[in-house]
C-alpha cells in the first residue's frame, strides 16, 4: 500500500523578481514499510522535498497524497495535526530541549497529540527502553553523549507511533562508530515494519536503505533499488 503518492509537484520560491524552482516536477510513490534514502548535492531540493513530505510546507503545484489524504491544499492548522500524529522527525542536530530531561523530551509530542497525561509517561518510558536508554531517562541532553542524544530524538520520533519517520542527516554530527550504532537502530526500526525516509550526503549511509532517490536541480534523476543493502549488525 502506498503511504505516499506525489504527482507532479513543483515548489517555486519568489526571490525578488526571480522564480526559484526548488522542485521542478517530482512524482513519487513510497510504500508502507519502505526504507528510502534521498541524496543530492547542496541546493538540489532535498530540504524542500523533506519539508513537503513532512507536511511542514505544501507544494506550489501538484498533489501530495499522504496516507490516503490529499494534504496539498491543507492550511497550517490541518498540516500540524497530521504532523503531530503521523510523522516522526529526526534531525542532524537532535533538536532536544536543553532544560528538560530525556523523559520530558520524549513526552512532548504526546502532549501535542493530545494523549492523556496518565498514558504519556508510560509510553515515553517504553520508547526510551526501545532505544536502550531506560536508565538515562532523568538525564538532560548535556549529560548525554551525542549518540545518546540522537537515541532520545529517535525515541521522541517513535513515541507517537507515526506512519513515517523522516530523518535529515541523522548521523551528520556523530563520529563514524556512533553513526553506525544509530544506523543499526534505524535498521531495527525498519525491520519492525516502520517506513523510513532518510536524507544523507554519504553514499555508505544511503546504502543502509533499500531504495535510493537521487535528486538534482529539483528533479529525481535516479530512483533505484539498492542491490546489496548494508545491514548493520
Ligand atoms: P539544509 O538541510 O539546511 O537545507 P543541506 O542539506 O543543503 O542544508 O546541508 C546541510 C549541511 O551539509 C550544510 O551545513 C551544508 O553546508 C553541508 N553540505 C551540503 N552539501 C554537502 C556535501 N555535498 N557534502 C558535505 N556536506 C554538505
Ligand atoms: P538542498 O536541501 O538539497 O540543499 P533546498 O531544498 O534547500 O536544497 O533548496 C533548493 C533550492 O531552493 C535552492 O536553490 C535554494 O536556494 C532554494 N530555496 C530553498 N528554500 C528557499 C526559500 N525559503 N526561499 C527561496 N529560495 C529557497
Notes on the structure:
- The structure is a single chain.
- The protein is of the alpha/beta class and 233 residues long.
- It contains seven helices and ten strands.
- Strands 6-7-8-3-9-10 form a six-stranded mixed sheet, sandwiched between helices.
- It is globular.
- The model has no long low-confidence stretch (mean pLDDT 97).
- Bound molecules: adenosine-5'-diphosphate (2 copies).
SSE layout:
Layout: E1 2-15, E2 18-31, E3 35-39, H1 46-53, E4 61-66, E5 69-70, H2 76-86, E6 87-90, H3 102-112, H4 117-130, H5 146-158, E7 164-168, H6 176-191, E8 195-199, H7 203-206, E9 211-216, E10 219-225
The structure holds adenosine-5'-diphosphate (2 copies).
One adenosine-5'-diphosphate binds at residues 41-42, 46-47, 201.
What's the short story on this structure?
The chain has 233 residues and is an alpha/beta fold.
Beta-strand residue fraction: 25-35%
The overall pLDDT, averaged over residues, is 97
Structural class label: alpha/beta
- As laid out across the biggest beta sheet, the strand order is 6-7-8-3-9-10
Bound molecules: adenosine-5'-diphosphate
Biggest sheet architecture: 6 strands, mixed
What is the rounded distance between the termini? 29 Å
In terms of per-residue confidence, which ranges show pLDDT below 50 for 5 or more consecutive residues? none
Radius of gyration computed on alpha carbons: 18 Å
Number of strands: 10
Fraction of helical residues: 25-40%
SSE pattern, N- to C-terminal = EEEHEEHEHHHEHEHEE
Broad shape: globular
Helices, by number, come to 7
Amino acid at each position: 500500500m502506498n503511504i505516499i503518492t506525489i504527482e507532479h509537484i513543483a515548489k517555486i520560491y519568489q526571490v525578488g523578481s526571480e522564480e526559484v524552482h526548488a522542485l521542478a516536477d517530482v512524482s513519487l510513490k513510497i510504500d508502507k514499510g519502505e526504507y528510502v534514502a534521498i541524496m543530492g548535492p547542496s541546493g538540489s531540493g532535498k530540504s524542500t522535498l523533506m519539508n513537503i513530505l513532512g507536511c511542514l510546507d505544501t507544494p506550489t503545484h501538484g498533489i501530495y497524497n499522504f496516507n490516503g489524504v490529499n494534504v496539498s491544499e491543507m492550511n497550517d492548522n490541518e498540516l500540524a495535526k497530521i504532523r503531530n500524529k503521523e510523522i516522526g522527525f529526526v534531525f542532524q542536530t537532535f533538536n532536544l530541549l536543553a532544560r528538560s530531561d530525556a523523559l520530558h523530551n520524549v513526552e512532548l509530542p504526546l502532549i501535542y497529540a493530545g494523549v492523556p497525561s496518565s498514558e504519556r509517561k508510560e509510553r515515553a518510558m517504553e520508547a526510551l527502553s526501545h532505544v536502550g536508554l531506560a536508565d538515562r531517562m532523568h538525564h538532560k541532553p548535556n549529560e548525554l553523549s551525542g549518540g545518546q542524544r540522537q537515541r532520545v530524538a529517535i525515541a521522541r520520533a517513535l513515541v507517537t507511533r507515526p506512519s513515517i519517520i523522516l530523518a535529515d542527516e541523522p548521523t551528520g554530527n556523530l563520529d563514524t562508530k556512533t553513526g553506525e550504532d544509530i544506523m543499526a537502530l534505524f535498521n531495527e526500526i525498519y525491520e519492525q515494519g516502520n517506513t523510513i525516509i532518510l536524507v544523507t550526503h554519504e553514499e555508505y549511509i544511503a546504502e543502509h536503505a533499500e531504495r535510493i532517490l537521487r535528486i538534482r536541480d529539483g528533479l529525481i534523476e535516479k530512483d533505484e533499488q539498492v542491490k546489496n543493502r548494508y545491514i548493520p549488525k
